[in-house]
Amino acid sequence: MKSNEHTKETINNLITCNPRIMSGTPVFKNTRVPIKNLIDYLEAGDNLDEFLEDFPSVSRTQATQALELAKEMLITQAYVHSD
Asked: Which residue among 31, 32, 49, 53 has the highest number of C-beta atoms inside a 10 angstrom radius?
């Protein structure tokens, strides 16, 4: 499976963007928790356990996969845009 296909599959299994759920805000699948909340928590200095405690509908696996996906996409973009 190509990397882009793997990334697309991961996104589809992890994230929902539906206009009827949180006005289309990307959320963790089967929750109403925006993906952005995880990033906001980490930016504020909170750890993953604090996020998971405050959003029990998100599993550790979902949160970890989101972070791994963000890392993969950032690294890929760095290669694409490097000199």
From this structure: 31
